[in-house]
Design brief:
- The structure is a single chain.
- Helix 2 (30-51) runs antiparallel to helix 3.
- This protein has helices spanning 12-18, 30-51, 54-70, 75-89.
- The chain has four helices and no strands.
- 59% of the residues lie in helices and 0% in strands.
- By secondary structure, the chain is an all-alpha fold.
């Protein structure tokens, strides 16, 4: 038996059982879920940094949306906030590295 003790996507237990295996899981409390999401964010970021794969970015995005939803927001409201911020402060497309500012 392999022990995981980590947050997984909703269909993972179903997928495991379709493979003829038995899995054990529990539904977390809201506080435990929020902590697990933070841990998952770190895990997915590490995986992206190691692989550079677009699929890992998609996983990060899913975790970010779940964090927003756990705080009572929606993916759409998060995207709207990102768009507002981009309009006000720009994006990261120009590749600027701020070196210093003189007073």
């Amino acid at each position: 038996m392999k022990i995981y003790n980590k947050l997984v996507r909703d269909r993972i237990p179903e997928i495991i059982e379709k493979q003829g295996k038995t899995c054990h899981y529990e539904v977390m409390s809201d506080d435990a879920y929020k902590a697990a999401l933070d841990a998952k964010l770190t895990e997915e970021l590490k995986e992206y940094r190691e692989s550079g794969e677009l699929e890992e970015l998609a996983d990060l995005l899913e975790v970010i949306y779940a964090i927003a939803e756990s705080r009572g927001e929606t993916a759409e409201s998060l995207n709207e906030l990102a768009e507002k911020k981009a309009l006000a402060r720009g994006r990261f497309r120009e590749k600027y590295m701020l070196l210093s500012v003189e007073e």
